[in-house]
Specification:
The protein is mostly helical. The chain contains 12 helices and 4 strands. The strands form 2 sheets. It has a two-stranded antiparallel ribbon with strand order 1-2. A hairpin with a 6-residue loop joins strand 3 and strand 4. The longest helix has 30 residues.
Length: 401
């Protein structure tokens, strides 16, 4: 699983937490139902927002979710428990978008020549997998009235845009394909829900969300990309980190303002939309720019405080040994499948990312409370991590008020 939206259980109430899990499981099962077991590795946190948006625009019938949910069988990721999961066109659209995004990730690994993909036969096999996912996504998209060409064209346009960007170039030029693809997916949720008037504001929210996702991914990979020499838009353009932070804050604000113009039919669904696309988005920005998480780029145009071109950096402590090279696509997929099918993605507190040199928290332990102080450790009743990282009045003796 990947994505910028990783809610902490302390920041969602019981209702929104259950709804978020229902959409996550619904996305995973929709991938399996339409595209087979292997496609479940394309499950990602951000893709389920499409399912959430669709359901929030549909008015509930007398029987509650009126066919929008079903009871799924036992799953290792839920501790072998059954659960109510999202179903229908929203979940299938989320699966389609996730599959095409996963295809783009495969192509990116091939282009970088990661691991075994540096060999021609393996690269050719990976391209066939990506092409198969593109075709599968196109078939499901056609059934939903969604033309996935806008997604695939955006992916194909990305390398040429990156090749044209150099020092002093615009970061927003690099994020344009992602913005276009995400805007199209968000807008189509209005079509599925029968609320065409929501298409324009949702497209605007999607455009800002795509921009933010691209920028935060670049921020989180900045140090690793510098060590490995991989292409990173922040390093290549030499954009100062304060400017990147400003762009991210502006994108988060743009999402919040765009959502004000969206007409939601379900109050609980609207609450989950705002929790994910407002609160969690802002927390993702704070998390990515937390002290010690990123280092200024050393390539491209100089950033404030950096030495002048040609001036060596001042000596510092010895640099650690370079990390092992990241796993290739196929090896990473194999490790990911083992983690996923054995439930470790959910049940372990920490596990090694199959592709990158980083630790990830298990879904059931996914509580990123950076900026909360000690409040998240004191009691379960705190509604913590607000705008300023402070706790609300929870009525207990833990000192979080």
């Amino acid at each position: 699983m990947f994505g910028i939206i990783r809610p902490c259980r302390h920041r969602l109430d019981e209702g929104t937490r259950a709804a978020w899990t229902a959409h996550l499981c619904g996305l995973c099962l929709a991938l399996r139902g339409d595209h087979g077991q292997f496609a479940r590795i394309a499950t990602n946190y951000d893709g389920l927002v499409v399912s959430v948006l669709t359901e929030a625009q549909i008015e509930r019938g007398n029987d509650g979710f009126d066919g929008l949910r079903r009871t799924a069988g036992p799953c290792p990721l839920r501790g072998m428990r059954t659960a109510s999961v999202a179903r229908g066109e929203g979940a299938r659209l989320a699966a389609t978008v996730s599959l095409v995004l996963a295809s783009a990730k495969v192509r990116d690994h091939v282009a970088d020549g990661d691991g075994v993909l540096a060999r021609r036969p393996m690269a050719a096999a990976a391209r066939r997998v990506a092409a198969g996912w593109d075709r599968a996504g196109a078939r499901t998209g056609a059934e939903l009235g969604f033309d996935t060409t806008v997604l695939t064209e955006a992916v194909e346009r990305q390398p040429s845009i990156e090749a044209a960007v150099g020092p002093g170039g615009s970061l927003l030029a690099v994020t344009e394909p992602t913005e276009t693809a995400t805007a199209a997916a968000f807008a189509h949720t209005a079509v599925l829900a029968g609320r065409p008037g929501n298409a324009a504001p949702l497209a605007e929210a999607g455009r800002f969300f795509g921009r933010l996702a691209h920028l935060l991914d670049a921020v989180e990979d900045l140090a690793a990309d510098e060590r490995s020499g991989a292409w990173n838009p922040i390093a290549v353009t030499g954009t100062p980190l304060p400017e990147v932070r400003r762009l991210c804050d502006d994108a988060a604000r743009g999402i919040r303002l765009a959502l004000r113009d969206v007409e939601f039919a379900d109050a609980e669904g609207a609450a989950l939309v705002r929790a994910l696309l407002d609160h969690e988005v802002r927390h993702a920005v704070r998390r990515s720019f937390a002290e010690g998480r990123v280092t200024p780029p050393r390539t491209g145009a100089p950033h404030p405080g950096a030495p002048l071109p040609g001036t060596p950096y001042p000596p510092g402590p010895p640099r650690p040994e370079p990390p092992r090279r990241r796993r290739g696509l196929l090896a990473g997929c194999a490790v990911w499948s083992v983690l996923f099918c054995t439930g470790q993605v959910c049940c372990r507190e920490e596990y090694d990312d199959p592709w990158k040199e980083r630790k990830r928290e298990g879904l059931c332990h996914s509580c990123d409370c950076s900026g909360c102080g000690d409040c998240c450790n004191c009691c379960e009743c705190c509604n913590c991590c607000g705008e300023d990282g402070c706790c609300g009045n929870c009525g207990c003796d833990c000192g979080c008020s």
